[in-house]
Design a protein that fits this description.
Strand order of the largest sheet: 3-2-4-1-10-9-11-15
Shape: globular
Structural class: alpha/beta
Largest sheet: 8 strands, antiparallel
Helix content: 25-40%
Oligomer: single chain
Number of helices: 17
Strand content: 15-25%
Distance between the termini: 11 Å
């Protein structure tokens, strides 16, 4: 969601701040701003346009200390007066990710103390609070202020009285510390610091950090000085370059064969060591609970079919935001699996912590970011290798999550004596074939583009699937609605007669995932129900199904049936359908309205 970059260095940091902010544009935002300390005062500029507009405003600006921000509106409309940084009495400037839950009470208190508010944001409350508590030490003022906040936050603050200092703090929202050759940096994502910092340290819950050109000091939640481990900054040389593609989403769809190959690289056999399990946690688990949001939740729903079929272990898949707010029945022998692209998804992190508080300590993180909070907190972990994913609509992160979850299903089956050596070998061969299978799915793009032309004129769509392909239908519907803004719903095909059939007309396209599996005959009956009501069918099928294009039926056939791995392959044409429909409708594909890449607030 929102992005933070801050710097204190022995050179002009304005270009570095703006470059870092531009790297964070993929997270989604509706305004941005910059504040620097210059000649004893704060220079601020803000816009509801893109970072490029902010760069024009900042032309010629030269400063050694500053902070900047991309805002995704929560409290207050997307407007310049609500854009960060917020300033208190021309002395404090502050940027903030997250939500302060007790901002109304604090606002009333600060109004009584004579502070004037110019925005509707909770962020301005923090700026005034820091100012009210300042007595010559910015780190101390921030520490006292954050002690009064309830909710999630990452902040970066400057004060005119300390012209070479930036102070940051985090609780529930990510913040990283960076070290370069001639200064120190803060950012909400290490990607922002590539090229400026040689190494980064991930701040922990409750940390407050003070940076200057020559030093960084971290104080933890117990108010003790601590050192955080340093990690080299990954090179993101080509990650943010579009190359021959029109959008990042298209680029990332076509990167899936490589992403899957990278995720499988070096895996020669199935075993608990793939997940860092040296204590036998996987082997003794009696149940599995998968916690995730959005696209990652659908990956977990596919995994439920795999794990129950292969390992014969009962699996629950819960929307993370729902799990943490209901009165559930804990079981200490449950393996709790958190799935997230960023590893910073607020609801998933909170759900995992809630499960931990209930005594469920066997926790596995499946994630695409090595240094994320989820990966640091889990006892077991699997790092996918999708690479940087910039498009808000997740594609390659989803398919690599599915690969990781299939490996988990095989591992759980093997530990329970349900995976013979020959079967293990066959599944490994099938996994290694996946990149080629994905290439075949990508080759359907011209046919998908023809479908997209028809969808461009529609306002609604229905997606159907059965068994482990129903979550793929859900993912297809999600992709279409989030980037093309066409209303789309997914149903298990067997539920047609229980309500959704009432929606079917010749104006309602019905997309069906129809692989050649054990449920095919039942699914064909469901297709006949749609045709009998005048519905227009768009069928994604594969070898041997004998489903062909005819009047009212548009079929695209993949060359093979991929067995249990079929969901990983069948989702690709659905991604392409959403992408090309959105392009034809002229929407902002990579930055869909109202959405953000990483949802770091509840």
């Amino acid at each position: 969601m929102c992005g933070i970059v801050g710097a204190s260095a022995r050179h002009n940091i304005v270009p570095t701040l703006l470059e870092g902010l531009q790297r964070l544009e993929y997270r989604g935002y509706d305004s941005c701003g910059l504040a620097v300390l210059q000649d004893g005062s704060i220079r601020r500029m803000r816009t509801t346009q893109r970072v490029a507009d902010l760069r024009v405003q900042a032309g010629g600006l030269d400063a050694a200390t500053g902070i900047c921000h991309t805002r995704w509106a929560t409290h207050g409309a997307p407007a310049t007066h609500n854009a960060h940084p917020m300033i208190s009495r021309d002395q404090v400037a502050l940027v903030h990710n997250g939500i302060v839950e007790n901002h109304e009470a604090l606002r009333a208190e600060l109004l009584e103390a004579g502070y004037r508010f110019e925005s509707q944001t909770d962020t301005e409350v923090i700026a005034h609070l820091v100012h009210s508590l300042y007595s010559g030490d910015l780190l101390r003022a921030v520490r006292l202020a954050t002690g009064r906040l309830r909710g999630a936050y990452a902040i970066a603050v400057v004060h005119t009285a300390e012209p070479l200092v930036v102070v940051g703090a985090r609780a529930g929202s990510p913040l990283v510390l960076g070290q370069g050759d001639d200064g120190y940096y803060l950012a909400s994502d290490a990607l922002a610091l590539a090229g400026a910092a040689q190494r980064v340290a991930y701040l922990e819950e409750g940390d407050v950090v003070r940076i200057s050109p020559d030093a960084a000091a971290v104080v933890d939640v117990r108010q003790e000085s601590v050192e955080r481990a340093w990690h080299p900054v990954e090179a993101y040389s080509g990650a943010t370059e579009l190359g021959p593609y029109r959008h990042y989403m298209q680029k990332e769809i076509f990167e899936q064969p490589r992403a899957v190959a990278d995720t499988l690289d070096g895996i020669a056999s199935i075993g608990p060591e793939l997940f860092g399990d040296t204590a036998g946690m996987l082997g003794s688990a009696r149940r599995v609970l998968i916690l995730a949001c959005g696209t990652s939740h659908y990956a977990g729903s596919v995994a439920r079919h795999w794990i129950e079929a292969l390992a014969r272990i009962p699996v629950d898949v819960e929307v993370a935001s729902e799990y943490r707010t209901r009165d559930s029945v804990p079981d200490p022998d449950t393996l709790v699996v958190g799935v997230s692209q960023s590893g910073e998804t607020a609801d998933t992190l909170s759900a995992l912590r809630h499960a931990r508080d209930l005594g469920m300590l066997r926790q596995l993180a499946i994630c695409n970011v090595a240094g994320s909070a989820m990966m640091r907190e889990a006892s077991l972990r699997f790092l996918t290798h999708a690479g940087v994913e910039i498009g808000v609509a997740s594609t390659k992160a989803f398919t690599t999550q599915l690969v990781a979850l299939f490996l988990l299903a095989l591992t759980l089956a093997k530990q329970r004596g349900r995976l013979a050596a020959q079967t293990e070998h066959e599944y490994l061969q099938a996994l290694r074939h996946l990149p080629a299978a994905l290439q075949a799915a990508l080759a359907t793009e011209p046919q998908i583009m023809a479908w997209a032309e028809a969808f461009t004129r529609k306002n609604n769509a229905l997606f159907l699937g059965r068994g482990m392909h129903f979550p793929i239908a859900e993912e297809g519907a999600l992709k279409l609605k989030e980037i093309s803004y066409i209303h789309a719903e997914a149903y298990p095909a067997g539920e047609l007669k229980h309500g959704p059939l009432a929606l079917v007309t010749d104006e309602m396209p019905v997309v069906t995932v129809a692989p050649n599996d054990a449920l095919l005959d039942k699914l064909k009956s469901n297709l006949q129900e749609v045709r009998a009501r005048g519905g227009e069918l768009y069928v994604l099928t594969d070898a041997g199904t004998r489903i062909d294009s005819s009047e009212g039926v548009h079929a695209i056939r993949l060359p093979e049936h991929y067995g249990l791995l079929s969901p990983i392959v069948h989702v690709v044409p659905l991604q392409l359908l959403a992408y090309h429909t959105a392009v034809a409708r002229g929407t902002d594909v990579d930055k869909p309205r109202n959405l953000a890449k990483s949802v770091t607030v509840e």
